[in-house]
Amino acid sequence: MSKLQGRVALVTGAGRGIGRAISVSLAAEGAKVAVAARTTAELDSLVDEIKSAGGESIALQADLSDRSVPARLVQQAKDAFGPIQILVNNAGLGSSSNPKPVVDFDDDFWEQSLLINLTAPYLLCKAVLPDMLAAKRGRIITVASINGRVGSYHGAAYAAGKHGVMGLMRTLAMEVAGEGITVNSICPGPVKTLMNDKRIEYDAERLGRDLAAHEKSLTPIGGRLLPEDIAPMAVYFASDDASMVTGQSYNIDGGLVMS
User: Which of 3, 59, 145, 252 is deepest in the core (most CB within 10 A)?
Assistant: First the structure.
């Protein structure tokens, strides 16, 4: 039997990259998956992919920089499938959008980054928790980053947001540990996504390195990860196999950060 048969999941930032891979994997294990992102065309193709494989999914267009969106998003998913049992906070804004040293950092970009990378997960957690607490069961999974453990050169807002969201998840894990709800984070290293493409291009140029050689050197194992390398951990956290795992942050990073 599938590990997540009939359970209801909401995945943010699901249109491409890690979020898409996680959504497909949750659906393959039997979950009903509400997928959210800003770009409807990407969401529609994802829903088609899930349905073609025999799964259930709906697309929810959402811009998480709007503070009113998280509660609406949760309600829309609940109206379609029932109370959310699995929340995957994946949507994020990377440092590559506006990299600068702190002395020159763009204040508006700082605010936007923290809003999407930290405040939106906080609001989404608040919105799903009442039903999880009532049911005495729930899974909250946040895609953080190895930059939640170490700094990000010219990426202060990203690192601050990821450090912050990991602290939020650990605190929430403590608060709901006796309520049948687990809260965990995944810390990816460099993954082949559009957002990370821009980051490594910036770093290669900044360091005067050949792009291909720079990419190959990014992890001790060699090169970058694929989104599909991250998804199995999300499935594990969402399943009964991880019922005694909470407050944890797991690195999937090709050996880049060994702590």
Answer: 145
